[in-house]
Amino acid sequence: MRVFDRSNALAGRWKYFAALGLLLTLALVLLLPATPDGPVTWVAVSSQKLEHEIGLVGKIEPVETTIITAPFEGFALANELRPGMQVEQGQALLSLDTALLEIKVRDALANKLKMQQAIEVYEAWATGQQMMRARQALRVAELYAGSLELELSQVEELYQKGIVPRNERDALKQQHNLQSLELTAAKSELKHVQAAGKGEARTIADMEYQNASIAHQQLSALLEHKTLHAPFSGVVLSLGAPQSTAGEAGGLHRGVLLATGQQLIKLGNMKGLKVVTQVAESDVNKFVLNQDVAIAGDGFSGRQLSGYVSAISQLAVQDDNAGSAARFPVTITVNAPEDGDFKNVRLGMSVHMTIVTYRNENSFIIPHAAVEQAGDAMFVEHRENLDAPVVRREVTIGQSTAQGVEVFGLNSGFVSVRSL
């Protein structure tokens, strides 16, 4: 008869469970990845708006400027313009004396009439005096040559009969030969005179007449510009040459002699405004055309304007300091207000601009310590809630911020941050 020993049975079972637990522990150690030492903190992450901004400063300028120059040489008459003065489209700005121009117009007209006379001569060339003289000379040479030929034939008959001496016949023959040469020269002269009325001389006369006509026409048209008018409504930016200082007449006082093409008035078109600023080479590639710009200024406080990037220069501003970083001009066009009026905004005012260089409405930002690198890939430990299982997700790094780093490939939940 066998006696059941309960204590021995329980001891055997505990040994079995201990061996099984040891095997499970070894399996977890081998299969699960090693984790860094230190406590784990689960940080909540959710979608949020991310923007990167760059602040710039500049001054208000007109969207368009034009320079009015002297159309011809002349003396300036009365001038009542001043820098900063508003002008309306079509308004008379400055008048010029036309005395010197009228002299040039008359000279051009006289030259045109001379060329016209030359053309008329060629048009009537076939019946002109030169052609008549050439034809008359040829006719006389033909008649005289015919008379000598008849006389020579008669003398030759008499010479054969011994009535006329030989020296008389030879003299007449020589005279006939000379007249033949004169006849040939007369024919050649007639051809030359005929060709002169149709050749290069006629072409040159035609071109000289055309040039004289155009010169007279252009000078006459300048007389219509003796009074200069504003091409658009705007503001007088400066007067005279560029070196003129603000507030001075810039050499446009009454009686001053102006040269053709000399700068007289610089106008700014107030239908639009712009701001030209400079950005460092480290930031210039963050700008693209049509980027939105917020504009504010102390001169029009309480009112904010908007604009957009309209031009980015490909050429850096010249700087004599070789060690300084390059800076590139950027132009911001100011959007017209709804009422179309730039109230309290004046040229030269200083403005502060804010340009958004990056925007993501659904950005996920996590602490830098939550990102683990394995080779070239980036991973985070993520769980949808604190009770959900942990999932190791591969992410892509985006923008870096003071709060953390932007990642792509993640959704709302919690990420683990391990303290070292």
In short:
This is Multidrug resistance efflux pump. This protein is α+β, with helices and mostly antiparallel strands and 420 residues long. It is 33% helix and 32% strand.
Kindly estimate the percentage of residues that lie in beta strands according to DSSP: 25-35%
CA-atom Rg in angstroms: 51 Å
Category by helix and strand content: alpha+beta
Q: Poorly predicted ranges (pLDDT <50, ≥5 residues)?
A: 1-11, 26-37, 244-249
Task: Describe the overall structure.
Keywords: Coiled coil. This protein is an alpha+beta fold. Among the domains are: 63-96 and 228-267, RNA polymerase II/Efflux pump adaptor protein, barrel-sandwich hybrid domain (OB fold (Dihydrolipoamide Acetyltransferase, E2P)), CATH 2.40.50.100; 105-219. Helices cover 33% and strands 32% of the residues. The chain has 5 helices and 18 strands. A 6-stranded antiparallel barrel has the order 2-9-12-11-10-13. Helix 2 (99-123) packs antiparallel against helix 5 and helix 3 runs antiparallel to helix 4 (166-196). The protein is elongated. Residues 1-11, 26-37 and 244-249 have low confidence and may be disordered.
Which terms would index this structure?
elongated, OB fold (Dihydrolipoamide Acetyltransferase, E2P), 420 residues, six-stranded antiparallel barrel, alpha+beta
Helix/strand layout:
Elements: H1 6-31, E1 40-45, E2 48-69, E3 74-75, E4 86-87, E5 92-95, H2 99-123, H3 129-160, H4 166-196, H5 200-222, E6 227-229, E7 234-239, E8 257-258, E9 263-280, E10 292-296, E11 305-312, E12 327-334, E13 350-366, E14 372-374, E15 377-383, E16 391-400, E17 405-408, E18 413-418
Antiparallel strand pairs: 1-18, 2-9, 2-13, 3-8, 4-7, 5-6, 7-9, 9-12, 10-11, 10-13, 11-12, 13-17, 14-15, 15-16, 15-18, 16-17
